[in-house]
Amino acid sequence: MGCGGYPTGIDSRTRKRDAAGGPGSDWQAGDVRTVADLAGLLRELRRRHARRHGGAELTYRELAAATGWSHGIIGEYLAGRVLPPTDRFDALVRLFGASPAEQGALATARDRVEEARRGPLPAGGVAEAPVPRQLPVDVFGFTGRARQLAELDGLLEGDGPGPAAGGPGPAAVISAVAGTAGVGKTALAVRWAHQVADRFPDGQLYVDLRGYGPEPPVPPADALAGFLRGLGVDAAGIPGELADRAAHYRTMLASRRVLVVLDNASGVDQVRPLLPGTPACFVVVTSRDDLAGLVARDGARRIDLDILPAEEALDLLRTLVGPRVAADPTAAAALADGCARLPLALRIAAEFATANPAMDLSELVADLRDEARRLDLLDTSGDPRTAVRSVFSWSYQHLSAPAAHAFGLLGLHPGHDLDAYAVAALAGTGLSQARAMIEELARAHLVEPAGAGRHSMHDLLRAYAVERVNATVDPVQRRAALTRLFDYVLGTAALAMDTLYPHERASRPDVPPPASPVPPVAGPQSATLWLDRQRPNLVAVAAYAAAHGWPRHSADLSRVLWRYLEVGGHYQEALAVHTSAAAAAARDGYGRASVLANLGSIHMWLGGHEEARRYFELSLAGHREQDDPAGEARALARLGVLHERLGGYREALAKMRQALAIYRRIGNRHGEAAQLVNLGLLHRRLGRYTAAADHQQQAAALFAEIGDRRLEGYALGNLGAVESLLGRHAEGLAHLETALAHCRESGDRGGEGAALGTIGAVYQRLAQFPEALDHLHQALAISRETGDRGVEMETLNTLGETLDAMGEPASALIRHRAALALSEQTGDEYERARALDGTAQALDSMGDPDEARGQWRQALEIYAKLGVPEARRVRRRLSRAPR
């Protein structure tokens, strides 16, 4: 529908002082909270140094020559992506000509930033990044491996070749834990990681790279995206290319002490992009490969992991089986040997022994030997993996027929975990039977708990399950099982969306209810919970369906889920779902126009306006070709919002009016109300406040009549913003608080952030600065969490205007220049002009009127081209003599 947010442009400002003093005092009192703030001060020092010496700014080459540092790290310091160490920060400020007093103030500011990264923030502050705690649960009954644990301890302390984790050295210390399948590499890495977690105060990152499962290994780019999200990078801040993601990842870790566990790697090429570039981090890699290249080129220490020694294998059986091991040590030793003393096989065998307490261990050993002989797996090669397969087969043969059938089908699931409902869909059974089957598989340790009623499989077991299903189920039945699964996923998603967004039901495809059992999604909380928990699987199913012959399921997942993914700020997942669907639709043609509109919308939210324009125009042409007026109106509405963001107000107005006319013609009142919101926003931007208020009032009344409280909140929030601009601040705040409540009630994070930002702007006009800062910091945090570049720019500019009104122009300058950088990336002309306007005001307050006038002239040129009322104010400003 293209409903917009709440632009926070301010048409009048409170100016408190004409400070002409040096920047040192301003900086010392400035609102410096983050590395980006600090970098802004460094850049301002660099510019001032150039002005004082009548030349250009010191180049990266000149700075590198003066310091001996690389161009790249200097760029990261000045861009605010890396906090410089104390000695380097001091060197930079001296090079930029800071006075002794300024050096002291800046050093204090740097210390505050570092403290904020590691501990509680001041009241009203916003955490710069979370501390990731991604380690899996420690393995129950972990036994032995004392030598390997000690070797890992030694590497952390710096014993042996290679740099110490915290000492000097060109590369991180990497411990490559190699070994055959099922030997306990993951268990060792996770146990040790938990033991030393407190040595890494900046967090622990973990990823299962799935290097040897039947599903494709995790691409390094995807692993990096997950790590960057864990480190607090917002959706829009994750670069698209592998090299850029790897560079950003290394940057994020450059001033942190983080433990990184890369589990189940297929080889060096999968690992190398995931290595930090600092010796303060420690990496543990597990792999069946010996990772010789990592050892030779990257200085890794390989820890080879063999089968358990006989006594440690017996210790594990004692822990898991109990007194029966002591009662028959000969049979226990034989059982351990029959499992090749591999922990994975021992755990499965121990569970079988526990489940059959009446059987002697000797009977179990004989049973296992018979199975091994029958399969002819214990050959003379001595490969311990043959024993693992023997144990799998032995355990599989003892399953009930339904559980054995289900086990094979589980290998088909493209996601990483599943629940009883997915099992019921795959197996074509009722829910109680599915639960019984998965409980039987869990008791046999053929699946493992993954939290909240979900289960996952070891990659060896997954491979064995695929082998079993291929051997026992014909291709037609396998396809039917996957079709039932995809029907269940798509159907449940559609039911959940009908619960959360019933008023948009007509815009989604007709999806029949699934034939298999459906989880409870009839209430908003349960619907949201299901979507949130299943989100990784939804992405996996969309990609698999697109690539393996279910194009309509992939396209319909895009068409069903777009609003959930957009409202929740799940932009990377949305990009994956819509990209997969677009690829499928390009081959099949089904749903292509709608999918392209979804793909364009995500690019627009992420600031990729040219890609968005292309997809919207293709969508519009497709809907017109299909004679689909509702789709045509939606594409026109999105194009209108895009033109508005890019400053093409005439084109925006035309597209929005066309969309409104179509919605009215076909009787789509929800679409009509949405376009009234968008038109009201555009009238407000152009200074037509009466028309803006009228459009928002009409929209709010329509949404209230329809019963869409979320979008009623949008209309009321935009109405409140107009009322504030007209001086009716109390009425405006009342409407905005209602809007905020509606957005929170519906889980609309983007709308919540926009409402908070607008409330902050109102408090700024009222000179209630603590309340303004509180709301604006919350809005900024949400915009960065969701990746909404529009709200982030608006909020940064409002923060700058607020700080300048408080008499802190240096801090204001940081915010406006950050907004300016974003606007240059996204092409948002209005926010660009607003950032230039705010920059000029801050520079003028800091005693630099000549540079301020230059910035105002640039702002005026854009404001005049847009035809907005701010142009008159800037003209008056420039007509006055400089201070």
In short:
With 883 residues, the protein is mainly alpha-helical. Helices cover 66% and strands 4% of the residues. The chain is globular.
Characteristic terms for this protein:
883 residues, mainly alpha, 41 helices, 66% helix
Protein model, in words:
By secondary structure, the protein is mostly helical. The chain has 41 helices and 7 strands. The strands form 2 sheets. Strands 2-3-4-1-5 form a 5-stranded parallel sheet, with helices on both faces. The chain has a two-stranded antiparallel ribbon with strand order 6-7. α5 packs antiparallel against α6. The radius of gyration is 31 Å and the shape is globular. Mean pLDDT is 83; it is low at 4-30, 118-128, 160-171 and 374-385.
